[in-house]
């Protein structure tokens, strides 16, 4: 049964969506339809979780908006997602960052960022 589902959903998978990980700062460009018009809305934040696999894979993005924490869950392979931009990479050693929910103020946006060392010398 699992192989049949994989074959059916294989054509709906997006190939270029796996370039971000948990802890990265991203900007998710989503398509929004209002009446007969369609526009792109940007949701910036930090990826705090990735779940599932195949066509059912999702990721959760968290940001602070007007002092309140806002989380949104996006399907990775959704046709309503235009693109996922990576603003900053991180060195997080966890699969889920749910501890970010308890942080307040400036600490709510801080993650250990990846440092690039020039080893060409």
Q: Would you write up a description of this structure?
A:
By secondary structure, the protein is mostly beta strands. The chain is 7% helix and 40% strand. It is built from 1 helix and 5 strands, in the order H-E-E-E-E-E. The protein has one helix at 2-9; strands spanning 25-34, 37-51, 58-65, 68-75, 81-88. It has a 5-stranded antiparallel sheet with strand order 4-3-2-1-5, with no helix packed on it. A hairpin with a 6-residue loop joins strand 2 (37-51) and strand 3 (58-65). The longest helix has 8 residues, at 2-9. The radius of gyration is 17 Å and the shape is globular. The model has no long low-confidence stretch (mean pLDDT 86).
* Unreliably modeled segments: none
Beta-strand proportion: 35-45%
Order of helices and strands: HEEEEE
Overall average residue pLDDT: 86
Q: Give the % helix.
A: under 10%
Number of contiguous helices: 1
Rg value: 17 Å
Structural class: mainly beta
Number of strands: 5
Please state the overall shape, judged from the principal axes of the Cα atoms. Answer: globular
Regarding quaternary structure, how should these chains be classified? single chain
Strand order of the largest sheet: 4-3-2-1-5
Q: How many angstroms separate the termini?
A: 55 Å
The major pleated sheet works out as:
5 strands, antiparallel
